[in-house]
Amino acid sequence: FTSASFRCLEGVIMSSVLAQVPLRELQKEIKRRLECIQKPERRLVLVGPPGSGKGTQSPRIVDEFCVCHLATGDILRAAVSKGTPMGKAAKSAMDSGKLVSDDIVLGIVEENLDREDCRRGFVL
Predict the structure, then answer these.
(1) I need a labelling partner for 43 at 20 to 30 A (CA). Which of 8, 57, 72, 93 fits?
(2) Listing from the earlier edge strand, what are the strands of the sheet with 42-44?
């Protein structure tokens, strides 16, 4: 960068939303992202009965390995709420008292794999 382009960039940043974020928070986030880049991609599946700690451990794994958390119940409810094609299929099954099929659940998971926070992997 030249000093002129640096001043221009500085002006854009200062006039943007970033100017409202404390510098320490920006530095912390940049450091976290640089550390995440160096970590290998992960695809983890937690299996266990209700109350076994899946929901407790997931946030820790997400933070440590820079991956997203795909809680099937949460993303299923979100898909139904948003009215996505898979969400509509899930709602139809639930309204008729049936279990949501594996194909629908897998379709909803697949829809979420494109999220920015899932770029380095996921905890399912």
Answers:
(1) 93
(2) 42-44, 121-123, 68-69
